[in-house]
Amino acid sequence: QVYPVESGGGLVQAGESLRLSCEVQGRFLKINTLAWYRQAPGKARDMVASWGSTGRIIYEESVKGRFTISVDIAKSTIDLQMGNLKPEDTAIYFCYTNAYDFGTGTHDYWGQGIQVTVSS
User: Which residues contact residue 93 at a Cβ distance below 8 angstroms, ignoring those fewer than 6 apart?
Assistant: First the structure.
């Protein structure tokens, strides 16, 4: 089994910064994708930023220039540095990975989610 474990999050004021961290734990052979998603109340879960095993990084349009991801594949971690936060960034943030698991093949795995609240 594979477990993305998130940390960080909390309550900040608009304009402040926050850092989320995620470590993929468990038994796996290869990570294909690492990403952060978020889900605001009443809305769909959307991708915020992603990293692929080719090194390609994609950001959602509204966070470009404000959010940055950093990946340490040797440690199986992905961090999300969020700057100039806005109230509309308020959401539950989920760590995601697509990984090759020993014995069962390639699957998607999600963390439990972590709350980020930005007050105006």
Answer: 6, 9, 20, 36, 37, 38, 48, 80, 113, 114, 115, 116
pLDDT range class, residue 45, cuts 50, 70, 90: very high
DSSP states of 8-22: E-EEEETT--EEEEE
Per-residue pLDDT for 27 more than 80?
A: yes
* pLDDT at residue 102 greater than cutoff 80: no
Q: Judge whether residue 104 has pLDDT over 90.
A: no
Please tell me what DSSP assigns to residue 62.
G
Determine the Cα–Cα distance for residues 88 and 11; give it in Å rounded to an integer.
Answer: 13
Q: Specify the 3-state DSSP secondary structure of 63.
A: helix
DSSP string for 81-92: EE-S--GGG-EE
β-strands 67-72, 77-82 pairing:
antiparallel
Amino acid symbol at 100: Y
Structural tokens at position 54: 């080719």
